[in-house]
Amino acid sequence: MTESTMKAPKKALRPVKWMRENLFSGWFNTVLTLGVAYLLVTSVGPLLNWFFLDANFVGSDPSACTGVGACWLFISQRLNFFIYGFYPDELQWRVDVMFLLLAVSFVPQFIERFPGRKWLGLFGIFGLPIVGYFLIPGGSFGLEEVQSSKWGGLMLTLILAYIGIIASLPIGILLALGRRSEMPIIRGICVVFIEVWRAVPLITVLFMASVMLPLFLPEGVNFEKLARALIGITLWQSAYMAEVIRGGLQAIPRGQYEAADALGLGYWRKMGLVILPQALKMVIPGIVNTFISLFKDTTLVLIIGLFDILGTVQSTVTDPAWQNVAIEGYVFVAFCFWVFCFGISRYSQNLERKLDTGHKT
Amino acid sequence: MQTPPKDQPGKKPGIIRVEGMHKWYGDFHVLKDLNLTVDQGERIVICGPSGSGKSTFIRCINRLEEHQQGKIIVDGIELTDDVRHIDTVRREVGMVFQHFNLFPHLTVLENCCLSPIWVRKTPRKEAEASAMEYLERVKIPDQANKFPGQLSGGQQQRVAIARALCMKPKIMLFDEPTSALDPEMIKEVLDVMIELAGSGMTMLCVTHEMGFAKTVADRVIFMDGGEIVEQAPPHEFFTNPQEARTQKFLQQILAH
């Protein structure tokens, strides 16, 4: 039986053949290829020069920048401000501890065989916020208090995004379940909540949180501005999250609900053990999309006077001591955001692959 | 095939009692004045043309569908809006669906253990051992650690039967268990069902498999237009149907 041992023909292409087939397969493709090659050659060179070859890396004050290439000196000199904001220098170790814990919890998630990575991940989700709650503001356990108005930079961006992400997911799940509930009152409340929050721009939410909310609160009750912004971001985000998750819930075939019912699981076990694991897995791309857009939307807190990483850079590029460093500053901010968002995206792809049980119904 | 004795002593009479039951979908009257008493250990086959309400009927017995009038009493518990009663009944009534409805994110073994562990609070080890016994009984213990998506339709349906049996139900409902299967897989599922019928399980089975009805049923019920038109032991039902509608139906399905 030769048929049974036949292998699929290999598609091994040598570079020259590959180029002829893919880049120069006709006069039109040849023109395109040459055009793109020309653009690459003419743009990559100057970019490389600006980024690296003509750039200034060493020195300690603005005069060390010669002005031809990028002045990375600006970033390295002001890095402390970009990362910690106005957090007192001698207390910055507390933030460093949080950065370290964040890395320890999540970097192993990318390494398939890292021992105990599940526990590290769980610590990252549940333990980290608790540690941070005591460590960053201080004021207890003999730690000196640091007002939240002094927080800023990358640290503030991460706090906003992190809390927003891990709080909005469970709230979003509950809202999505509520919206599909058979109880009219619960369904009504959830529909109104979702439709109101989702229809309001985040900027408006932030303005309302910082300006209007204090008007409604009783005398003497005073949240910090940051806490108010966080609540606003979380509720706004959970409305979006709810709709993403609802999409997943609706995509689960009715038979799954019926089978769970027929086994007598009851509502919460049916949802928790049968429906949500499938629904959430199905909408991982949507959830991650929402996370990433939240991460970037945190920059809007600038308008209520909180200095996230973009805010700190923005305020520094107008510093008269440093001339023409805006591009460097924004490139740096973009790079920071890209690193985190790309990380989130890669992790979600990992997760999708791992959770695939080979069913496509 | 050995048919088990019909009148076993100590069997509860009327484990399912349906009295004057009506159901509407909106304005559409799907089920009209159904009356049925099923004794423990009885095997009932329900047949009828599509749209006759036979699936809807057995789905009312574990309240996957709600009835609006009349009574359904299962194992002494009346099905009402009371959620606790519904869950109690569902624990005692296993159901097998046309499209298997296995949970695709869990392995075969996890599918079988889910409800015993979470609802019956059986210790995991015990639940797994018992699940393996049932998988043995449906002849697929070797697939225990696969996911449903990796099995054939016939295998999936046998897992679904094992999953329902793991709750040690008093009654089993089958809603067209072989209708979604390729012809060569129907037999493996029917064999399992015949074996189950031989063990004295109370069974209600909606099916078009008339061979199965002849082999194992104590009673065949013919439904049409939301009504029970005729019920009789299989021999009588197939050889001497009383109603014109039954005769017409039998002619149509036995013609080829």
- Work out the number of β strands of chain A: 0
Mean pLDDT of chain B: 89
What general outline of chain A do the C-alpha atoms trace? globular
Model regions low in confidence, pLDDT < 50 over at least 5 residues of chain B: 1-9
Largest sheet of chain B: 6 strands, mixed
CATH H-level homologous superfamily name of the domain at 14-100 and 169-253 in chain B: P-loop containing nucleotide triphosphate hydrolases
What is the end-to-end distance of chain A?
Answer: 36 Å
Structural write-up:
The complex is a heterodimer of chains A (361) and B (256). Chain A has 361 residues and is mostly helical. Among the domains of chain A are: 32 residues, no CATH class; 189 residues, MetI-like (MetI-like fold, Orthogonal Bundle). Helix content of chain A is 67%, strand content 0%. Chain A has 14 helices and no strands. In chain A, helix 6 runs antiparallel to helix 7 and helix 10 runs antiparallel to helix 11. With 256 residues, chain B is of the alpha/beta class. Chain B has a domain of 172 residues: Rossmann fold (3-Layer(aba) Sandwich). A six-stranded mixed beta sheet of chain B has the order 6-7-8-3-9-10, sandwiched between helices. In chain B, strand 9 and strand 10 form a beta hairpin. In chain B, helix 3 packs across helix 4 and helix 5 runs parallel beside helix 6. The interface between A and B is medium-sized, with 24 and 29 residues. Chain B: Belongs to the ABC transporter superfamily. Chain B: It is a peripheral membrane protein. Chain B: InterPro entries: AAA+_ATPase, ABC_ATPase_HisP-typ, ABC_transporter-like_ATP-bd, ABC_transporter-like_CS, MetN_ABC_transporter-like, P-loop_NTPase. Chain B: Keywords: Amino-acid transport, ATP-binding, Cell inner membrane, Cell membrane, Membrane, Nucleotide-binding, Transport. Chain B: It comes from Marinobacter adhaerens (strain DSM 23420 / HP15). Chain A: Belongs to the binding-protein-dependent transport system permease family. HisMQ subfamily.
